[in-house]
Design a protein that fits this description.
Elements (H helix, E strand, L loop, with lengths): L1 H9 L6 E8 L7 E3 L7 H14 L7 E6 L11 E10 L2 E9 L11 E4 L6 E3 L5 E9 L2 E8 L13 H4 L6
Antiparallel strand pairs: 1-2, 1-3, 3-9, 4-7, 4-9, 5-6, 5-8
Length: 171
């Protein structure tokens, strides 16, 4: 994890959040394609694949979301398939992941659980409403591994997981 933190701190971020791995083709969204940042962030991608394998070598995913000091309102990813695995790295105070039992916009008193995932993986269902707790000090790098679906349909068999199929030497 220390090596990944060093890379995240020293790299030039293309924007505050971006994807590695497979992403839906924007124009027609019928199949997954190599993400636009895979080649530029090849070494980081390799390190992140090793990190998830050390945590859970059987976890299947298509995509890795990277966020730098991003705070989100309650939202869900209704098209995700299966569970997501998230970890936060960096030198920060505060922060965390909040997962709600229901849509908090429709029920402001809905129960939720806060996970302090600093240097620890949290597995959660991204189809449930979730948000991030703001960082009070420092810089948080959130890394989320997940499988993209489209309109609630499963990823077809021809779209293998990121960990198994990405050829970082091509394109």
């Amino acid at each position: 994890m220390d090596e990944i933190e060093r890379v995240l701190r020293s790299m030039r971020w293309p924007k505050e959040r971006f994807l590695l791995g497979k992403v839906w083709q924007r124009e027609i969204q019928t199949h997954l394609v190599q993400g636009q940042y895979n080649k530029a962030y090849r070494e980081l991608h390799k390190l992140l694949k090793k990190l998830i394998r050390r945590h859970n070598r059987y976890f299947e995913y298509t995509t890795i979301q990277l966020n730098k000091n991003v705070t989100t309102n309650p939202h869900n990813h209704r098209d995700n398939i299966g569970y997501s695995n998230a970890i936060a790295l960096g030198d920060f105070e505060g922060g965390g992941l909040r997962v709600y039992d229901a849509d908090p916009d429709n029920n402001p008193n809905v129960a939720s659980k806060i996970y302090r995932n600093h240097r620890e993986f949290v597995q959660f269902d991204g189809r449930k409403f979730h948000s991030t707790i703001p960082v009070e000090r420092g810089c948080r790098y959130a890394i989320v591994y997940f499988t993209q679906g489209v309109h609630g349909k499963p990823v077809p068999s021809w779209a293998p997981s990121c960990a198994e199929c990405i050829d970082l030497t091509s394109t």
